[in-house]
Amino acid sequence: QVQLVQSGAEVKKPGASVKVSCKASGYTFTSYDINWVRQATGQGLEWMGWMNPNSGNTGYAQKFQGRVTMTRNTSISTAYMELSSLRSEDTAVYYCARGRRVPQAFDIWGQGTMVTVSS
Amino acid sequence: DIQMTQSPSSLSASVGDRVTITCQASQDISNYLNWYQQKPGKAPKLLIYDASNLETGVPSRFSGSGSGTDFTFTISSLQPEDIATYYCQQYDAPDTFGGGTKVEIK
Description:
The complex is a heterodimer.
Chain A: E1 3-6, E2 10-12, E3 18-25, E4 33-39, E5 46-51, E6 58-60, E7 68-73, E8 78-83, E9 92-101, E10 104-109, E11 113-117
Parallel strand pairs in A: 2-11
Antiparallel strand pairs in A: 1-3, 3-8, 4-5, 4-9, 5-6, 7-8, 9-10, 9-11
Chain B: E1 4-7, E2 10-13, E3 19-25, E4 33-38, E5 45-49, E6 53-54, E7 62-67, E8 70-75, E9 84-90, E10 96-97, E11 101-105
Parallel strand pairs in B: 2-11
Antiparallel strand pairs in B: 1-3, 3-8, 4-5, 4-9, 5-6, 7-8, 9-10, 9-11
């Protein structure tokens, strides 16, 4: 079946970086964008950016420009999101989501990865 | 960026009630609006795309309407399994989400 499976929970110290993976299966990885959305505990959804796995092109929310990098390895159908200079406010569940282009929507989501930033 | 104002932030209704949630965009987004359901501890699930189209497999008690800046999401007859938080999302780049509406059973 079509699914996105994310890497496990992470605990990082302030100032460190984290890299979360998102492995796609059941569809052609390069045919759909991958988006990243995060959610702090008890808070709403926050879109971070997108990546086209075919071209590698990316687009980031202004808030994360300079701190986030989205990449992929097409040979293993896996997308990555790396966030640097972590601070406590980055503690959240990070989701990858498949971006359907027509009609546009996030139609398949990963299970989420909890990232905790704590000294 | 386009701001999405969603209301109410929470509501309590009885099983069988009609539930309505609104989402207002800070500028015209045509019909570039989706609705998602998120149950506790789970990832969001797409319910409605392009403001009024039901995603495949989603029960017909869910519906959406609107265009421009004002949008409505409706559950025609609330069921116990509909307890969740609902989010609108506009995709007139960059994407932004509404603040969410938590739906509870009275």
